[in-house]
Each structure stands twice: as C-alpha cells, then as structure tokens.
Amino acid sequence: MQIPLDKICVKSGILCPNCQAKIDKGLYEKWEVDVMKVLVELEDKIKGLRDVNYKKSIVFDRKLYIILENLGSHRHELEKYLREKLRNFNFDRIVLIEYASNPKELVYKLLANVEIKSTNIYYSPDGIVYYVAKIPSYEKPKVDEIGDSVKRIFKILTRNDIYFEFVDYPKYKKINEEEKIEQHIDANQLDKLLKQI
C-alpha cells in the first residue's frame, strides 16, 4: 500500500516533522493516519495490495469514503476487512472509490452505477472551471441518493464543482432470448402471409 506519509510514522503513531507538516497544512486529517495504518497492516492479508495507492479519505453523512488508485479487483475483500478493522469509528458505511486523475474519468468512477451520457467542462466568464454531467432523467432517483457526496468528493479531489443535468432519453429495453425467438417467428409468419397475397 503506497501512502503519502512515512510508513514507520503511521505504524508507530508518532509523526515526524515532515508528516506532521502535511497534517498541519490540511492535506490530510489526523484521523486519516488510522485509516492508512489499517491499510498498511492489510498488505500481508490481501495479495496485490502493495500496488494500491492511497489518495484521500472523506467523511460525509456518516459514511467513510476511501479513495484509492489501482484498486483493481480488491474492492470487496478490502471493504470486508475495513468494516471489521474500523468498526470503532461507528461509520454507517465504508465506500471504496477508484481514483482517476482525469476529472471526466473521475465522474464515471463516482457515479459507477449511474448511466452517464456525457461529461463536459465549462469555463465561466470569471474564469471558474466546472463540469456538467448529462444523465438520463430515469436515473435521477439514483443520483438523488449519492449526488451530494459525489459533489463533495469531486470538489475536494479536483477543486472544481460538478453539476448534474437530467435529460429525457428513451430507456431502451433489453430483449431476452425468448422475445427474440417470438420476434423471429412473427417475422416468418408475416413473410408467409405476404407470399399468399
């Protein structure tokens, strides 16, 4: 596990001047040291965790969001261990988020279970940069549940705001195999009828 603080400092709980300076500057919160410590301790239990890069932890609405780079396929196993190791923090939920340095890619990571049609960058006349994600209106209930946390995390990681624009798009229905067979049969029957005319 790659962390932004010295591993010896994190394991001991005693920070050197360099690590303490990062805390004092507000780059990381003091409690994040405990999160990093747990992640480092899990290196021996979860194979491949050494390649994962810790970016930031954010608490919002009694949920702990841990942003990690190169998370790969370790999400579910890691979430399981973290719930056990961090249960004393009394978080309602622990959420792991795959980090992306590109803000547009980050939007898709934060809204992983939401269909997004496009994400665009805009520049206001006063020089402020912000992003707008166009989302089908039928996905609004999902966004309403996580929208505030997504906006906060996006702001902290990119220093930019993100807005959601809900657009009316047709919701395409997936056709199962039985429906395909029925459609094929109907087409054959239609062809026979046309030949009889």
Task: Provide an overview of this structure.
Helices cover 42% and strands 21% of the residues. It has 197 residues and is α/β, with parallel strands linked by helices. It folds into 2 domains: 1-99, no CATH class; 101-197, K homology (KH) domain (GMP Synthetase, Chain A, domain 3, 2-Layer Sandwich), CATH 3.30.300.20. It contains 7 helices and 6 strands. It has a 3-stranded mixed beta sheet, with helices on both faces. It has a 3-stranded mixed beta sheet with strand order 4-5-6. The chain is globular.
List the helices and strands and how they pair.
Elements: H1 7-12, H2 17-24, H3 32-41, E1 53-60, E2 63-69, H4 75-85, E3 93-98, H5 103-110, E4 118-123, E5 129-136, H6 140-158, E6 161-167, H7 177-196
Parallel strand pairs: 2-3, 5-6
Antiparallel strand pairs: 1-2, 4-5
Helix pairs in contact: 5-6
Protein name: Transcription elongation factor
Summarize the structure.
By secondary structure, this protein is α/β, with parallel strands linked by helices. The chain has helices at 7-12, 17-24, 32-41, 75-85, 103-110, 140-158, 177-196, and strands at 53-60, 63-69, 93-98, 118-123, 129-136, 161-167.
